[in-house]
Write a structure and sequence with these properties.
Layout lengths: L8 E8 L6 E7 L5 E4 L2 E4 L4 E8 L13 E8 L7 H6 L7 E6 L7 H11 L24 H41 L5 H34 L1
Antiparallel strand pairs: 1-5, 2-4, 2-6, 3-5, 6-7
Helix pairs in contact: 3-4
């Protein structure tokens, strides 16, 4: 069985009857919960063969653990009249039974094999055999393809729109601050200290938003230019 064993791994057994009589067969295993065998029993005509699929269920493979799983294929000449296979096996005499034992082997693909498969799947690079008269142009240290340029332009537009929105919000907040100042001045019971704190809060918030927007625009514009 070849790994990885994260999914069902199937191995086929080919059983051939070289005799001139019908043969009954049965497949047994020491780990019946780990394997699914189809068909696990049947009859093979003279000179014919049958394919038996052995399906290993997924499990956590440990390379340090030696497999002790075994299979045994039992065969017996089929009697003239077969009515019940279970009765045939129960009444079979030990000297009439023939068996073949098989030991399970687990193999994991090597890392080198994986790398070779990946390299083989890669297309060969194209080679340009045409001669050039002049010297080859030096590659740019940094190059942007059309997709990255388009993304940067769209990001700049989005940031400009956010700046305009922040400016509009700043104007609204400034108007709101003026309105609150007028209300506070008209309110005789208002405290001068509370009024000063309210004015400072209304003026500092728009300024902070403008600074943050300027930092974002400077970062993306600098990235686009470089």
């Amino acid at each position: 069985f070849s790994g990885p064993f994260t999914d069902v791994v199937t191995t086929n057994l080919k059983l051939r009857n070289p005799s001139d009589r019908k043969v009954c067969f049965k497949v047994k295993t020491t780990a019946p919960r780990r394997y699914c065998v189809r068909p696990n029993s049947g009859i093979i005509d003279p000179g014919s063969s049958v394919i038996v699929s052995v399906m290993l269920q997924p499990f956590d493979y440990d390379p340090n653990e030696k497999s002790k799983h075994k299979f045994m294929v039992q065969t017996i000449y089929a009697p003239p009249n077969i009515s019940d296979m279970e009765v045939v096996w129960k009444e079979a005499k030990p000297d009439e039974l023939m068996d073949s034992k098989l030991r399970c082997v687990f193999e994991m693909p090597n890392e080198n094999d994986k790398l070779n498969d990946i390299d083989a799947s890669k297309p060969a690079p194209a080679v340009n055999t045409s001669k050039q008269d002049g010297p080859m142009p030096k590659p740019h240290s940094v190059s942007l393809n059309d997709t990255e340029t388009r993304k940067l332009v769209e990001e700049c537009k989005r940031l400009q729109a956010e700046v305009m929105k922040l400016s509009e919000d700043n104007r609204h907040l400034r108007d709101e601050g003026l309105r609150l100042r007028k209300v506070a001045q008209s309110d005789k019971s208002g405290s001068p200290t509370a009024l000063a704190l309210r004015d400072n809060g209304s003026n500092s918030l728009p300024s902070l938003l403008v600074v943050i927007a300027a930092i974002f625009i400077g970062f993306f514009l600098g990235k686009f230019i470089l």
